[in-house]
């Protein structure tokens, strides 16, 4: 199937209230432009270095999301244009985003990444760490950051019940936090499990290989 066919197949599966983040990591600007031309405006990248290669080549109304682990020393390179940082996994990182956003006279949207997977390789805050950062935000401690949601990645497993339980745990945290300050976005679910994520309350899904196909190379 072509990228066009893949894209429309995914879009047909998404309810109107669920945002699609087209994950374009490892795919060239030409492929991103093809999906953009179909009407997609939100794209996700894992690595700052790769995003900085693509950004100048593509339309400036693209809403870029960083969805991979972000090092604090890389924030300054994207603070001028990044729409959303989904992978805030430490207080140190949110402080750096707040500082660099302030320099650009911007407010950057972020999600707190909560670790729900059993795998040690996954990044993320535990519930208490996320709660402490969220409470500080509600008190106004990060004036150039807007925490609008939570993000999580389920365990990479064929056990769909485990995946469902992990997504449901994140939905529970989302609901709890929203009693203090209403969050708008729950980002969970990727190409292999976004159907379960939507059933569990996701309002944003991150889909890459199901649109672009699987690629082995990385842009250097």
Structure report:
- With 220 residues, the chain is α/β, with parallel strands linked by helices.
- Helices cover 38% and strands 18% of the residues.
- The chain is built from nine helices and eight strands.
- It has helices at residues 3-13, 29-36, 48-54, 75-78, 91-103, 127-138, 160-178, 194-199, 209-212, and strands at residues 19-23, 42-45, 63-66, 84-88, 108-113, 145-152, 185-188, 204-207.
- Strands 7-6-5-4-3-2-1-8 form an eight-stranded parallel β-sheet.
- The radius of gyration is 17 Å and the shape is globular.
What structural keywords apply?
single chain, 220 residues, alpha/beta, eight-stranded parallel beta sheet, 9 helices, 18% strand
SS-derived structural category: alpha/beta
What fraction strand?
15-25%
Would you count the extended β strands for me?
A: 8
Order of H and E elements: HEHEHEHEHEHEHEHEH
Portion in helices: 25-40%
Strand order of the largest sheet: 7-6-5-4-3-2-1-8
Low-confidence spans: none
Shape: globular
Number of helices: 9
**Gyration radius from CA atoms, angstroms:** 17 Å
Summarize the biggest pleated sheet.
8 strands, parallel
Kindly state the mean pLDDT as a whole number? 96
Distance between the termini: 27 Å
